[in-house]
Amino acid sequence: MRNLIPVGLGLLTVLAALVAAAWMNRGDTVPTADDPGLGGTVWGADYFPDVTLTAHDGRRLRFFEDMIEDRVVLINFIYTSCPDTCPLETARLLEVQQLLGDRMGEDVFFYSISIDPDNDTQPVLAEFADSWDIPEGWLFLTGDYDEITLLRKKLGVSTDDVDSLDLADHDLHLVLGNQATGRWMKRSPFENSYVLADQLGRWLHNWDRPGPGDRDFADAPELRQISTGEDLFRTRCQACHTIGDGDLRDTARRQVGPDLYHVAGKRDADWLRRWLLEPDVMLEEGDPTAVAMMADFNGVPMPNFRLSDREVTQLLGYIDRESRRVDRVRGVNGGADGHAGHGGHGAHGQAAAAGGDGPGPDHAAHGGHGGGDADQGGAGMAHGSHDSHDSHGGDVGAEGEAGR
């Protein structure tokens, strides 16, 4: 929440200035904020190219008229062979989709457009969407490379030198918008899923759905400052790992990974640190523990999140503190060896007991409760807790509230 208000206001200010400039360049009178369709007129068919894309279900759709006109949408650019961030991005959007519930395909639409159309053909995208159990209201699309590049530039997620960049260096931002009102924003794929659902389900719909009537600011939970380690766990690990809640094995949604509870006591410290720094290299080298973990978790590899050595230390420190917090809640006189039954196997890495498993896809499915300020020490990963989001409230769909 601490980022939402300044970012939102800043975007609105910039958009208002751009709208005014666009109208003045046309020689027309600058419209007032009360004029209907102000933003939708400027950011309309004259701005967005109506290129034709092919969806994973075989439909051919025009970008403006069929996909975004008068709709609230989330758009991102991915490629199916992406080894690291794209899978995390898709897993995070599945969490957002679950929060939005039956509003998906009704008044909120997701579009994931391939930046590698030569390889991501319609059959490839169909297989990819099926492997992720993609719901109604979310399309994976391919098309002409030059036309997709034009879309990326129009949406502000590409540069003029895009052709000289590797696929892995593509802009990772999500684009959220309401075409009819002209409200558009870029968000990080690592953003809290409750925040994204709230922006899509309420803010971009002009708050047209009332929130629960039984809420009172006097009962609001106290907000706390989370540490860097906890932020890393929430944004990178939580979609596929817990800290004390057991392994995740939702293979349909690729949300699979070992429990990171006291992981530092279950894996060699040097192995664990290297696993967090370069899991892809270890898998390519055939590291027996890494290969066994991936096989145990449905062949889903842990992405390389390009963590620095300092970030690894901060992340492991948080996992260690959260594991000890779980011990206190359970009344356990814990040690670093952890609880029986919580070995992290997993397609990713963690530390698991000897012969056990290691951390799984370092994403994030629960949010960490726990505390601690300094992210130091601790050689392992553990689990994140449920309340993945402290500061957001409001109903965002059939099943979700923005925060607990």
What is the fold's blueprint, element by element?
Elements: H1 4-25, H2 38-42, E1 52-55, E2 60-62, H3 63-68, E3 72-78, H4 85-100, E4 109-114, H5 122-131, E5 138-142, H6 145-154, E6 174-178, E7 183-187, H7 193-201, H8 228-237, E8 248-250, E9 255-257, H9 269-277, H10 279-285, H11 288-296, H12 309-330
Parallel strand pairs: 3-4, 4-5
Antiparallel strand pairs: 1-2, 1-5, 3-6, 6-7, 8-9
Protein model, in words:
33% of the residues lie in helices and 10% in strands. By secondary structure, it is an alpha+beta fold. It folds into 2 domains: 4-205, Glutaredoxin, CATH 3.40.30.10; 226-390, Cytochrome Bc1 Complex, Chain D, domain 2 (Orthogonal Bundle). Helix 5 (122-131) links the parallel strand 4 (109-114) and strand 5 (138-142). The longest helix is centred in the first third of the chain and has 22 residues, at 4-25. It starts with a helix and ends in a 74-residue tail after the last helix. Mean pLDDT is 75; it is low at 1-14, 19-36 and 334-404.
